[in-house]
Amino acid sequence: MLSFYFGGLFIFTEPLHYVGRPVWFLKNYSMDAISSFTTAIKTKKNLTEENESLRDELSRINSKFLLLKLLEKENYELKTMLGRKDEDQEFILANILAKPNLSPYDSLILDIGKSEGAKKGAKVLINDNIILGELEEVYSKTSKVRMYSFPSDKLEVAVGFNKIIGTAEGKGGGNFEIKFPRDVIFEKGDVVVLPDMDLLILGTVESILTTPEDPLQTLLFRIPINIFELRWVQILQE
Amino acid sequence: MGSNSSRIITDVVLLLSIFVLPWWLSLFLIILSFYVFKPFYEGLFFALAIDLIYSAPRELFHNLPIIFIISLTFFLVLNLLGRQLRGRN
Question: For residue A176, which of A13, A40, A153, A207 sits 20 to 30 Å off, Cα-Cα?
Fold first, then answer.
């Protein structure tokens, strides 16, 4: 009964978001200013070391990226041959106003809404190919994202190169858990995708837990990006 | 500083906290305010606001406003139970 009455109160969400919008903007702006200030007072030596390590990382990523481009092209050509050509995807860029640590519901609040063309149910991505969740509520200037990783939420996923299908359970904060029989071989770093959208990465396997008495193995996987450091996401336009 | 002005300052701090602080810290501040100001009805409004701003229907919480329910429990315990205990003494 209480949940019925609570449902009716959601008409106040939009005005509350309207009040919160400038506060969230101000908070994000001041966090950026503090971050710039701490960077500015770092010693020159620290910055040089960080610069060198970032250059190394960038060159490693660049070589992997070239390979990825090649595989992407090959994948596209194979799909075209099989008549499964992907449509060009369009995105709307959105600023994150509130991250999951502000909410007990593992949700994000974005600064775009109906006026920018956001629609309920649209997929929310990072870096074109990492999927976070979908738009659950869209207001005129803001929208609420339901992350797939909410504790106890269930989701069909495909794991590894062989795309073995299973049901993952959310653990909050971008973490998931999934169980498979022990004789199925998985490795750390295996990619987890959504079965119907195999180019969208949900996470990578972080650890595999087995116990002698349990016939199942437990795979723990997480979104390959720290969601608490995220500033922007993309909304996939259907 | 009078009780009224400290209550207004608390209201402003709590209102800002629901937009900038983690939910558990806001909840702690609300419960603390229940203890300091009796009865602190605004606390229930702030708790409900957290649920309305961030919540989405979740099976785990049976679609209930979980922060509001926790706050209401503390509100009732600190006000009604506290009053009854004082009445006995």
Answer: A13
- The stretches of B1-89 forming alpha helices (DSSP H) are 3-20, 23-36, 41-54, 66-76, 82-88
For residue A136, give the nearest of B21, B23, B56 by CB distance.
B56
- Those of residues 161-190 in A touching chain B at CB distance below 8 A are none
Residue that the structure tokens 């996401």 belong to? A233
Considering only CB atoms, A151 lies closest to which of B48, B54, B60, namely B60
CB-hemisphere CA count at 13 Å for A199?
14
Q: Divide the 238 residues of chain A into consecutive groups of 10 and give the mean pLDDT of each group.
A: 62 85 87 80 79 87 79 78 68 88 84 89 87 90 90 87 88 90 86 80 89 87 85 86
CA B34, CA B10: separation in Å to the nearest integer? 11
The interface predicted TM-score (ipTM) is: 0.78
Q: Does A101 lie at the interface with B, CB-CB under 8 angstroms?
A: yes
Kindly report the nearest CA distance between residue B46 and chain A, in angstroms.
Answer: 11
What pTM did the predictor assign?
0.77
- Least Cα separation, residue B86 to chain A (angstroms): 31
Bridge partners, residue A179, by sequence: A218
Alpha-carbon distance of A139 to A21, in angstroms, equals 12
